[in-house]
Amino acid sequence: MQAKGYHDWVFFLWIPKGAGGWSPQATDRQPWIQLDLRNRMEVTAIATQGRYGSSDWVSGYLLLFSDTGRAWKQYRQEDGVGRFAGNVNADGVVLQKLSHSIRSRFLRFVPLDWNPSGWVGLRVEVYGCAYKSYVADFDGRSSLLYRFNQKSMSTVKDVISLRFKSRQAEGVLLHGEGQRGDYITLELHRGRLALYLNLDDTRLRFSSGRVAVTLGSLLDDQHWHSVLIERFNKQVNFTVDSHTEHFRTKGEGDSLEVDYELSFGGIPLPGKPGTFLRKNFHGCIENLYYNGINVIDLAKRRKPQIYSGNVTFSCSEPQLVSTTFLSSSSSFLSLRAMASSLGGFAVRFQFRTWNPDGLLLSTRLALEPQRLELQISNSRLRLTHHTSAQQKEEVSTGEARANSINDGLWHSVSLSSRGLQVTMTLDNEPPSTIDLEDHMEAGDLYFGGCPSSSPADTGCENPTLAFQGCMRLISVNSQPVDLNLVRQGRLGNYRELQFNTCGIHDRCLPNFCEHGGQCSQSWSTFYCDCSGTGYNGATCHNSIYEVSCEAYRLAGSSSGYFSIDPDGSGPLGPTKVYCNMTEDKVWTVVTHNSTDPIRVQGSTLQKPYIMKFNYSASPEQLIALVAGSEQCQQEIVYSCRKSRLFNTWDGSPLSWWVDQAGERRTYWGGFLPGVQQCSCSLEENCIDMNYFCNCDADTDSANDTGVLSYKEHLPVSEIVIGDTNRTFSEALYRIGPLRCYGDKSTWNAASFYQESSYLHFPTLQTELSADLSFYFKTSAPSGVFLENLGLKDFIRVELSSPSVVTFSFDVGNGPVILAVKSHVPLNDRQWHYVRAERSVKEASLQVDQLPLRFLEAPSDGHLRLRLNSQLFVGGTAARQRGFLGCIRTLTINGVTVNLEERAKMTPGVSPGCPGHCSSSSSLCHNRGRCVEKNSGYVCDCSQSAYSGPSCKEEVSVSFDRESSVTYTFQEPFSVMQNRSSQASSVYRESSRARENMAFSFMTTQSPAMLLTVSTFSQQYIAVILARNGSLQIWYHLHVDRRPDVFSPRPTSLVDGRLHRIRIHREGKDIYLQTVIILCSFWITGGENFDEEVMQAGSKGFIGCLSSVQFNHVAPLKAALLNRGSSLVSVRGHLEESNCGLLADSTTSHPLSGKCESEKHDNDTRHDSAVIGGVVTVVVCFTLCAVAVMTRFLYRHRQGRTDASVSEKEHRHNLETAYRRETAYQAEPAYRTEKWFGKSTTSA
What we know:
It is a single-pass type I membrane protein. Residues 1-129 form the F5/8 type C domain. Residues 504-541, 914-952 form the EGF-like domain. The protein is mainly beta. Helices cover 8% and strands 40% of the residues. A hairpin with a 5-residue loop joins strand 48 (655-658) and strand 49. The longest helix is centred in the last third of the chain and has 22 residues, at 1204-1225.
């Protein structure tokens, strides 16, 4: 039946007017319905209905396709989703347009869900058109040769397209080469497609360093895959299925010169010079076109330019049928071991999987309780002979191979017994054997896992996990196993299997790991290794560095070298700069390759002197840095002797510099780019007022030093000097580093004073990942911060109640709501921080310093957030639930949204935000919080380790060996759990384990304990000084494993100098910053870890401790201010010190790095909570020198005189805040202990 203007044909399974439809028997364990389209067709859409006149319909199903009706492949939509949404009633029609068409003869519909009040019922309609195919079959020894009419073919443009399906993971599909060094080769390698292409580069022809562009995965699945190669000059588009790679070719030329012929399916002469891939293709190729020429059609018609050696023109179908083991806990296949005429037994099969662990085969032996287990363990194959409940013998194979056996490729394994030996063989590796005490007879064979019944009944028990993957070609005692008989219930038994298909799926294609993260995977999910990238998070999306020097200062850092990431989570990487924080302004300094003065002689306009400057940051990073700064400047020192900058006759420039965009600039100072002047002209002090520059006076000695401050032109990328060729003529110049200050994003704010008002911006471009962060303050009980809608998808962040911020979105898996509840109201007219992130792996929400909440995304759900409306900030498109208050520093994927500029032209919104705490100057430091007052402001330092009116005064304490302080607090987890029933059930929610620790210390003693956090479940974190004075960080998060130990290079910190330490852990990643040490960690293990920590603790600590911060708690300061609190107990003598002040008198050069624990064999991917509730802090230190204490007392008394009023108000607010926190934390909770200094028992 013809469709009207949509498809060429429509196939009806059942017509709605007639009664009926398909419904399986209730006893069918795996119901499905299969369509035979008679020939291969191109299917573009499908439609479903329920069974006519019934309550039976399918609400969700899988779609499989096959050429033969035996080997099936699951259809997956654009983002990898295999499940199709079905019907909600029996009569409605649900049409699904396929994102990519299916070219196949057979279709199979597998119901997943149906009407719970009815049964499975289905009517199907298929849309598509006829498919024309020109096929050639290659047997692994054949090839097609396309010979040119002339000796060689030279092309600047090529288009090659084909479709193939392969029986093997290796083989050449296309090859051509020329004598001058050009070549093109397309080959299958390890199930992936590699393209080698070189244009006129003889060096690459004779080298072994050819680089391939690789695409695709699992391409040896015996199903069709499409390939398209498009080249124009050096630009190439390489497409495999739906994935495209754009790249430039190697070589000097723009044309591809191939001599004599192109070969398809193999290389006919393996010894031919320049050929490096030998194995021919084994499979079928169809619709092969080379620059518009149908090569297979020419071969079928036996045209003279085609040579077809042993090629047939119909695709032979191998009888390889796979079975998928779906569950890592309950899948199994049991078969009876058939007797062998030779005695013993022999089992052979092939498998493929991504999982590093899983049981492949288990069988009970005649001599109970002996049994054999063949399993994948830690990515290697292991055979275990259990002789008793306690004794076993095992061998393994695969240790020497370059790739692990869980690489997704097919592997062959055989297990056989003969005499008193059992032999295991993997692929083509040497066999491994186990000796037996008696002849072996096997009982029932369990493939892939064990039944849920008692191991005593079956003799089978999963050692760790069941096998999750595919098996094929199973034979027992040389008899092939017909799995169709198993499916029909006529042979053996099974559970959680999918027959006639291999459901393996490459979750690293495409690679969702950002910023160069390495993707690895299991059967059900993927993981990103962010080591060395400068980013962390589930997909390496979040930068571990601050965006500016201003941000480092607000976090409490002092001057030094820092890595900054100017675009945050954006595509630009981090760069190292110097942050000068000694002045009122925080200067970011970026150096280049030529900072010393350089003398220039002998240059003319025809042959000028040219110097290009290479900065420590890339041009893109420099542009982002300059754009995000309030002001930038760069000094040019230019001394001259008879060397002019401008021609005195016509004013044309003789020397100039080039800006960041490559434009020539002729001004030498100031911020007026349109004026050809030097600084002396702007300041009206040139030595000759007839000229605008001192050097133009053409004297024996002059100077035109100036400061360039028009930041849109900075930095200077090049300088050109052209007038130093006369007698005694020379110039001496120096270009200073780029210096910028301020962070424009920090105080970019807008005030919303009408509920119906909003700001609108372009649609969010955040299909796969998005992070949103901002600050807000309000007195309203609720309001939408931002919203962006699509047809069905949406994303929204809002204040849903006075104490709850919610982050909600829908990417096609149903609405998801993530909420964080604060124990104090958030509509208190103070600034609060919000950060929401959504990626293909998880979603998270952070509010202030409250625990991070996150949800894991479903492994097989929709991935892309498809939006099409404008982004609304401060309201919604419906003009309802608008936000009233201030929003500032709105950043989306590393890009700051300019709220102020849009607010200038929007009614109901004004740029900026009123109040003292909204100014761009930093009033409160070191995590101090600015609190608005009616007649001013006050700094709340309750969450800072510092004190004073501006949270800048260090809190330091000296202890003797016997003194200690115990501090106890409760983390408010109980009130922050997200218990929203509206969150989609396919997301899993939890809190991410992480800590932030910072402190300073000074000592001359080792070993020593600096900090310890421990729980009553015997978990602990310890920071100690080893015997050699080096820093060690101990993490014992799993009580059944050895601790992880991170140690810097063995540089002693026991030198009587002050050292600042910052430690941040998130999951398995640890980041350390010290003032001297370069972070370069290794991990060690041993049985005496706990003893070494206790040794350090038993020595106590003789020295000074300052500015101790653990997450949002400052325990040392709390001990000084709350001595009467039930949460604080003091032993021995406790006295304030001033060792922290020493940091201000010296310039430190902090170096930062990322430290990651090596993974133990039994490691898992689950983070463990470190702090479960009550935390105890014990501090043990000794007195500092009397002179240091005298200096502190003098400064402390002077500070009281200068700021008595503000200090009194500040200390009152600080004590009030701690009392409030103490009262809140006094609720019952789990108990955890934390020590500083000496190791003691729980207080």
